[in-house]
Design brief:
Blueprint lengths: L1 H25 L20 E3 L2 E8 L4 E4 L8 E5 L5 E8 L2 E5 L5 E5 L3 E2 L4 E4 L11 E4 L8 E5 L4 E8 L2 E6 L2 E6 L3 E2 L7
Amino acid sequence: MLDWAMVIFSARMLAPVSLVLFACLLAGAPRTALGQEFVPLSPEKTTETGGESSTFAVVKASRANVRLGPSFDHAVKWVYRRSGVPVAVIERFEHWRRIRDMDGDEGWVHFALLDSTARGGIVRRGGGDAADAPLPLLADAAGDAATVALLEPGVVLEVLSCADAWCRVVVGERQGWVLRKGLWGVGSRDF
């Protein structure tokens, strides 16, 4: 008999709480993830990449799960296992960012795993003169400058600045200049 009395007492205590929650919903309190829509990126922070607006960021975690949808409940699609990899952010939803990688694959990442202030790049296939040629890292922003290193396609680097056709980059402990068209992840705007 005591157990049944506790159930009735608990139900009476929860009734006012449920009324308050219902009143908040009617008054226009913030909606849950189910009621919100995707928010497009603001134009001042976007870059054109293949006809779509996006902004670039780098993966700042040494391990970052890319998911099928914008929540921890969605399955992991793939995992980044290093930091500094550039990605294009193409959509926002609450604390989640839909990203696209250099190969065009898309998925969702929690915003805490990305750094939108850092700049990174990946050496494109065909970044050098021929389709399989490495991209030269040069001592100066000129085609006839001394070669510091040869960068193979897929090399991830830190981008310090870009202007016109050249980007100043850091790879490991080496610094130099590369042709902007040889990199993915820098966009078309100067920074």
